[in-house]
Design a protein that fits this description.
Distance between the termini: 26 Å
Oligomer: single chain
Radius of gyration: 12 Å
Strand content: under 5%
Largest sheet: none
Order of helices and strands: HHH
Length: 54
């Protein structure tokens, strides 16, 4: 997979997720709902996987 070079503004505009909320999430200050995380992974053409703890 090739990483997308995307600004927070573009991600916000294209996913409908507030830019401030994205900033706080990426800085570890708030959590996002699973729905919003899936919106981001879909936009970035990534998969979200959950694995058991070791």
């Amino acid at each position: 997979m090739v990483a997308k070079n995307v600004t927070a503004y573009q991600l916000s505009k294209d996913t409908g997720i507030n830019e401030g909320q994205l900033s706080r999430f990426f800085n570890g200050k708030v959590d996002l709902s699973l729905k919003k995380i899936l919106q981001i992974t879909d936009y970035l053409d990534c998969y979200l996987s959950i694995e058991p703890r070791k």
